[in-house]
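Trying the structure run again after the queue cleared.
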Amino acid sequence: MPWRRRDTLHRQAYDRRHPIHDAIRLEPALSDYISNLVVFFVVVDPPGLVPLFIALTRGFDDRHKRIIALRGTAIAFVVLVFFAYFGKVVLETLSIEMPAFRIAGGALLFWIAFEMLFAKRSERKERDTGEAMTDEDAHDIAVFPLAVPLIAGPGAITSILLLMDRAGTTAAGQVSVLGAAATVIGGVTLILLGADRVGRLLGRTVIHTVSRVLGIVLAALAAQTVISGITAVYPPH
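Done. Tokens:
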């Protein structure tokens, strides 16, 4: 009937104007962004970078510390963007399928979680920092070890590959992944710029406690990644 048609058109026009309609439509994108944000925050572990950055830049003045922090985080973000768009091409060139990479990547993330839980990761990063200070080839510590592997390490590179694969070819999904990575890298930049104050405020005990808690979360994320890879090969009936 005509009145029903008018009522339907009125409701459609109202939904387009009403902010709740837009909020419902944006809810999945926001959920994906938060999920990606948690993954990058756990893998990069910004609080754990503070004592390493302090040790790495010991003897530098404030101006050089700012330069190292800004340059290191910028390079790390460029590395992540490169692997986000070209990492899959590298895998395809090597004839590695994504399910296999999910299983291997999940195992790698689980190993990183194990290191975080038992403080092995901080020891390894401190060893990388010490090598950079004594190795003649490591003349630019913003590149090594700060950008790679302390920020854009194996865990972060693996994560962005897996998340971009999950996002597919949709622009919203890719923006969600890159936006989450940019947010975490931006947070790392701010933390490193104030690393001396943050280190005094939190102390090593709090920083190590946070890293262990994040290790538990990362272990669960790693298990889920392995499960998704196995179910892709052997789908449940």
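The CA atoms of residues 191 and 198 lie 7 Å apart. Worth checking whether this holds up in the mutant runs.
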